[in-house]
Write a structure and sequence with these properties.
Blueprint (H helix, E strand, L loop, with lengths): L24 E5 L4 H11 L3 E6 L12 E2 L2 E2 H5 L5 E4 L5 H12 L3 E4 L3 H7 L3 H7 L4 E6 L14 H7 L2 H6 L11 H24 L3 E6 H13 L19 E3 L4 E4 L4 H10 L5 H6 L4 H16 L4 H10 L4 E3 L3 H5 L2 H5 L3 E6 L2 E6 L1 E5 L2 E3 L22
Parallel strand pairs: 1-2, 1-6, 2-5, 6-7, 7-8
Antiparallel strand pairs: 3-4, 9-10, 10-11, 12-13, 14-15
Helix pairs in contact: 1-8, 8-9
Length: 386
């Protein structure tokens, strides 16, 4: 198994760097985005991940923009893995799958419990195969309950957890254009896998960790979205904060003054310091902030974004550009951080984003592209690297 060498943050090739999870073996039998993306994160951290797909492949291979018949999003969430095709409904496929589980440290799946039992990989069966296995079971709404057997997708969880209503802010409810729920849940699953390894290191025993997208997103939402429902006797109405995206002469910028000093500096920048006393007289903080953004709207349209950003930065007012994807890729700070690199694949060169942690100056860049369907079927289950 590869030790996943990488280069230093300086961009120069350095001594071989062994990634933190090198030697950890993971079986991923998950489809769509949350489970596979979590397994990719663990692969970026050094784990050896074998992705198990049914005959015909993960349905997500055919989702969205594609190149040579392979979905780009699928490739972006499955790089660095080995891929095998196993039919768990056939005895030989199930036997091969069980062999993989016997040698694994972590098993990630998004099978509903009744489906796992039907296939022959229920809780008791898996525990009997490998007593030290960390099993991560991801469901949409939980292993039981009224919604347990309902299909689940990103937008459905956004709706059920309050996100769509929250983001509407008095307008028409609308789901995000990004698959935020799936990607957020992937981060939680990665965190749970690492916690499982720590727990096993202490007890010497495996653990079955169950989580649901409903649970993970609710946890994520709570600190700010539910501030008006934290105290049990609070039934006050939530008021949407002012939109920090403000229009300029030639586009938009993000403006986020928080402290009194930053508000005053903003007024100074736009040439209206006299408004400070008027705003200070407004006792209700939310009303004052809303009034502030209404008053500065017209002056901001008098000059282009570039000039405003320079002025606000000079006065230490929190601000930033509204980049489109191409502008983000060419943002000076993004380039400085070496977030993106080029990865050669059988389908052509692709851009890949590195794992966001830097270990003693070492960047965790992508090591290998996503596997072709059944690309590693002929390999022995765990190779010869252990």
């Amino acid at each position: 198994m590869s030790t996943h060498t990488t280069s230093s943050a300086s961009g120069r090739a350095g001594d071989a760097f062994i990634r933190p999870l090198a030697g950890i073996r993971i079986v991923e039998a998950a489809s769509y985005l949350a489970g596979p993306f979590a397994a990719q994160m663990l692969s970026d951290l050094g784990a050896d991940v074998i992705k198990v797909e049914p005959p015909g492949g993960d349905p997500y291979r055919n989702f969205g923009l594609s190149r040579h018949g392979v979905g780009v999003v699928w490739g972006n969430a499955n790089r660095g893995k080995r891929g095998v095709v196993l039919d768990l409904k056939a005895s030989d496929g199930l036997d091969s799958f069980k062999q993989l589980l016997r040698g694994a440290d972590i098993y990630i799946d998004n099978l509903r419990p009744h489906v796992a039992e039907k296939l022959g990989v229920g809780k008791e069966t898996v525990e009997a195969l490998n007593a030290s296995l960390i099993r991560l079971s991801i469901t949409g709404y939980g292993p039981d309950g009224d919604a347990a057997r309902e299909p689940v997708f990103d937008a459905l969880v956004q709706g059920r957890t309050g996100l769509i209503a929250y983001e509407a802010a008095g307008g028409v409810p609308k789901a995000t254009n990004s698959f935020m729920v799936d990607k957020l849940c992937a981060s939680f699953v990665c965190q749970l896998a690492l916690a499982g390894l720590l727990a096993r290191g202490r007890s010497g025993k495996g653990v079955h960790i169950q989580t649901s997208m409903l649970d993970m997103v609710s946890y994520f939402n709570f600190p700010d979205m539910f501030q008006h429902r934290t105290y049990l006797d609070d039934d006050s109405s939530w008021r949407a904060p002012p939109q920090p995206v403000v229009a300029t002469q030639d586009g938009y910028i993000v403006l986020s003054p928080v402290s009194g000093k930053q508000l005053a500096k903003t007024l100074e920048a736009i040439g209206h310091p006299e408004w400070k006393e008027e705003l200070r007289a407004i006792a209700d903080k939310a009303e004052m902030t809303a009034t502030f953004f209404r008053r500065i709207a017209a002056p901001l349209k008098a000059r282009p974004s570039r000039e405003w950003l320079a002025k606000f930065r000079e006065l230490e007012v929190p601000c930033g550009p509204v980049n489109d994807p191409d502008e983000h890729l060419n943002d000076p700070q993004v380039l400085h951080n070496q977030l993106y690199s080029t990865l050669d694949t059988p389908l052509g060169a692709v851009r890949s984003v590195r794992y966001p942690g830097v270990f003693d100056g070492n960047l965790l860049t992508a090591c290998a592209p996503a596997p072709a369907l059944g690309e590693h079927d002929a390999q022995t289950p765990w190779g010869t690297g252990r």
